[in-house]
Specification:
With 743 residues, this protein is mainly beta. The protein folds into 7 domains: 93 residues, Immunoglobulin-like; 105 residues, Immunoglobulins (Immunoglobulin-like, Sandwich), CATH 2.60.40; 115 residues, Immunoglobulin-like (Sandwich), CATH 2.60.40.10; 101 residues, Immunoglobulins (Immunoglobulin-like); 68 residues, Immunoglobulins (Immunoglobulin-like, Sandwich), CATH 2.60.40.10; 100 residues, Immunoglobulin-like (Sandwich), CATH 2.60.40; 94 residues, Immunoglobulin-like. It is built from 2 helices and 57 strands. The strands form 15 sheets. Strands 51, 53, 54, 55, 56 and 57 form a 6-stranded mixed beta sheet that branches. The chain has a 5-stranded mixed beta sheet with strand order 10-17-16-12-14, with no helix packed on it. Strands 20, 21, 24, 25 and 26 form a 5-stranded antiparallel beta sheet that branches.
């Protein structure tokens, strides 16, 4: 048996940066003429441990593993897509020679994938070894990065070299390398096992994506009722070949975002930001700029800018657009004429004595227009609990705008333990309402206990962006200690002791990202205490069902009609969560169309085998679950269905003479038959008897009770079998002759 796998990669490269896909195909013996009767290599010989696959993205072909020596042919179809449409296909044939040898291929160790910003120099370490230490190995590499445009190179031995040795892939990337598609480098290490040629080879595919750098130093400011954005010029990739750089797109959203740019998946498409400008190249005073005239004063607007790249057709139409990493965010309020809440923090946790600290800022005097909106001024703080109605919590009044007022408020005697509380502030000028601030809520923490861990999640509604969340745990001394920090709204605290009490609170770290507002904005959730509990079920067993259908015959003992269920021990499948199994539930359905119902429970001490006697036949579908000592039931195992083996056999003679022996015509064997459709005819073709009862019990008379004469009668019998799929008509229609003998 051959045990080494075969690996190959055609490593196609498209200069237009179109998307390539790979698949196996039937080789051609002539133009558009497939080879007749062609079989893939893994369809020849045994199929056990013999599988040929191709990665549709990388093109890597893996045959694991060949079983028969010989010459094999395969064809590889490479498909080129642009904007989701197939535009070209290439078919490549290749021959594979499989022969036996006492040799193992070399081993290549290197990263599988990396993403870099254009302009960075890649220096990728490669380690080459071989299980056969007396051999030499040669390393080579191919792929898109080795083209003429700033080509990559391998730094290391180029001839057959004793193992082990190291090499480097070096590639100085530049802006013309920016692409949505990954570049592929196929590393090939081949040994010198055969003196007249080469030996076994190993291929390793390394995928590299080169992305556009982000625009730098984005700022925002108001200008004549509009918002002016500026960022650095020159941009590090605004000089490219063939006008590959197309300009900048401008993106906007209301309120800040904790969007985290991803080097491997750059761009803002699919994010909360909306594109408001495309291919802008306006420049003034050595700055790129954009003027947003669609903003209004009621919102905090946050912006990002990204560079756009594209290939051009001969008529200058862009295709294969590429987005750079977006710039940092810049936020601004066009008109700060309303209060802004900067704190909604729980300072006391209680069901009736809770306390929330509210802090806010006044509007900017020059933007409120205090001449149009004169004093006295009243600030009304409103509270809403969960989804209830808003009620006035307190108010602050000042005769003049510049009058110093306390912008801190402690909301007392609230149920901060169970409720999330929302706040907003209404501004009144000389008794007339000016407007409402955006809503800000407390940070509400939920802790769900699980097996040896607590799962924390939290939610809040804020006009600022929460950049991160710090997780605090109360220690034995009653003080809180930080145990983690995350940018998401969840945190798993693992490695705990079940039934021990753990108390938590969360601190959010946020920002409006606008000038003259406190930064960072810090707020605490309420305190929540929970005890971890084992509520995690085991993994499901692996079920097998057998019966004695293959042994059925006319002499079968009805007591032997049972199904044998055997299943695996989950503690061996998933020991981390299956160390406390108590029992197994057994589920059964008579047919595949019926719902599974629980029919039995077996203690783990009774093993992993069960005999089941179905009420009707042997067919049925089974599933098994494991149950632990806390009552946690696993998911059901894969449903296993087993069929009946219907058997129906008729005699050819009976003697209805009243002597009590063989007076009735009955089947010899009647197993798993639901009904029949039997018709008996005399020699002239007249119907003399019919029944649907599989027991038949015919006494040799017609339906009106007339005795039939001795002789030969012909029958046709359609049989309807009990199957796991339901009652099914047998493909074999029974027909034959019945001899009636009375004397």
């Amino acid at each position: 048996m051959l045990i080494n796998f075969f690996i190959h990669n055609p490593n196609a490269y498209d200069v237009d940066k179109d998307s390539l896909a790979y698949e196996l195909a039937t080789p051609l013996q002539a133009v558009n003429t497939p080879v007749p009767g062609y079989k893939l290599p893994d369809e020849i010989g045994t199929s056990v441990g013999n599988q040929l696959t191709i990665n549709p993205i990388t093109g890597e072909i893996r045959w694991d593993s060949p079983k028969l020596q010989g010459e094999y042919n395969i064809a590889i179809r490479v498909k080129e897509y642009r904007n989701g449409k197939l535009i070209n296909v290439i078919l490549r044939d290749m021959q594979i020679l499989i022969r036996a040898c006492e040799n193992e291929p070399p081993v290549i160790q290197s990263p599988d994938q990396l993403c870099v910003v254009a302009g960075e120099k890649i220096s990728l370490n490669i380690e080459v070894s071989d299980p056969n230490l007396n051999q030499k190995v040669r390393l080579s590499a191919t792929g898109g990065p080795f083209n003429e445009l700033s080509p990559a190179k391998i730094i290391g031995p180029s001839a057959f070299t004793p193992v082990n040795f190291n090499a480097k892939l070096e590639w100085q990337t530049n802006c013309n390398h920016i692409s949505n598609q990954y570049y592929q480098v196929v590393l090939r290490a081949v040994d010198n096992f055969y003196p007249d040629s080469t030996g076994l080879a190993t291929l390793k595919t390394v995928r590299i994506k080169v992305v556009g750098p982000p625009p730098k130093n984005l700022t925002s400011k108001t200008e004549n009722g509009k918002i002016r954005l500026e960022w650095d010029s020159p941009y590090s990739c605004d000089m490219t070949n063939d006008n590959y750089f197309q300009g900048f797109s401008v993106w906007r959203k209301v309120a800040s975002s904790n969007f985290a740019p991803d080097t491997c998946n750059p761009g803002l498409t699919g994010s909360e930001y909306q594109k408001i400008a495309f291919r802008t190249l306006s420049k003034q005073d050595n700055k790129y700029f954009y003027l947003d005239d669609k903003a209004d004063g009621a919102n905090t607007y946050c912006y990002r800018v990204q560079a756009e790249f594209a290939k051009l057709t001969s008529t200058s139409n862009p295709f294969n657009r590429v987005e750079s990493i977006p710039s940092d965010e810049s936020c601004i309020i066009l008109l700060r004429d309303l209060p802004l809440i900067t704190k909604a923090s729980v300072t006391e946790t209680s069901s009736n004595l809770g306390k929330v600290h509210i802090r806010w800022t006044k509007p900017l005097a020059e933007q409120l227009d205090t001449i149009k909106n004169p004093g006295p001024y009243r600030y009304e703080i409103y509270r809403r609990v969960n989804s209830g109605n808003s009620v006035l919590a307190t108010s602050v009044t000042s005769p003049y705008f510049q009058t110093e007022i306390d912008t801190n408020y402690f909301d007392m005697n609230q149920n901060t333990q169970d409720n999330q509380i929302f706040y907003f502030i209404s501004l009144f000028s000389n008794g007339k309402k000016v407007g409402d601030s955006p809503v800000a809520s407390t940070l509400f923490l939920t802790v769900n206990p699980s097996d040896k861990k607590n799962i924390l999640s939290w939610k809040s509604t804020t006009p600022w962006s929460s950049r991160s969340f710090k997780v605090f745990l109360k220690n034995n001394g009653g003080t809180f200690t930080q145990i983690g920090e995350t940018k998401t709204n969840t945190f798993d605290h693992n490695g705990l002791k079940n039934d021990s009490l753990y108390c938590y609170r969360i601190e959010s770290v946020g920002s409006y990202s606008i000038p003259y507002i406190e930064d960072p904005i810090l707020n605490y959730s309420q305190e929540v205490c929970r005890r971890p509990v084992d509520n995690v079920p085991s993994c499901p067993p692996i079920l097998k069902v057998t019966n004695i259908c293959q042994q059925l015959n006319s002499a079968i003992n009805p007591d032997d009609l049972f199904n044998t269920l055997t299943w695996s021990d989950p503690s061996k499948e998933c020991p981390a969560i299956a160390d406390d199994i108590q029992s197994f539930n057994i589920y059964y359905a008579e047919t595949i169309n019926d719902s599974l119902i629980k029919v039995d429970n077996q203690d783990v001490k009774d093993g992993f085998r069960k005999i089941h006697y179905p009420d009707s036949g042997l067919s049925g579908c089974y599933s098994v679950t494991s149950v632990d000592f806390n009552g946690n039931e696993s998911a059901k195992s894969a449903v296993v269905c087993i069929d009946n083996c219907p058997f129906y056999s008729l005699p050819n003679t009976f003697t209805p003479n009243g002597d009590g022996k063989n007076d009735l015509f009955r089947p010899r064997v009647n197993l798993f038959i639901e009904r029949i459709d039997m018709k008996v005819y005399n020699q002239w073709g007249n119907l003399v008897f019919e029944t649907i009862d599989p027991l038949i019990n015919w006494n040799g008379t017609t339906h009106n009770g007339t005795e039939l004469a001795d002789g030969t009668y012909h029958y046709i019998c359609t049989v309807f079998e009990k199957r796991v799929t339901g009652v099914t008509e047998s493909k074999n229609v029974l027909s034959g002759f019945i001899q009636i003998i009375r004397n």
